Amino acid sequence: MARPKSRVLTEVEQQLMEIIWARGRATVAEVADELAASKPVAFNTVQTTLRIMEDKGYLRHTTAGRSFVYEAAIRREQASGAALRQVLGRFFDNSPELLAQSLLKTHGLSDAELSRIESLIAEARKRA
Prior knowledge:
Shape: elongated
Largest sheet: 3 strands, antiparallel
Strand content: 5-15%
Number of strands: 3
């Protein structure tokens, strides 16, 4: 049975999105060239992946001559929000509290990080 298509970004798609977000817009060749600086990649693989990402709604394209020029259809914050919702649903029963508890228990946070989190909690209490 075929695996269902992921609506959130895969690791490879995330790498391509980072390039698009940084550049603003790019052709398949530009994305492939930038990615090739860190690891070898086939032009056709990049082209196919960008098309899949457009089908998912992460990218849109215009045409410049014979080239497709891709740009982000969503902001980084939207993509991270979708990924976070998936993690919440899959691992934390849709509970932000359980996620926060897990982070606090399993990740050694610095005093500065804890202070920033405490400030965010205080702000959230004021809004509630």
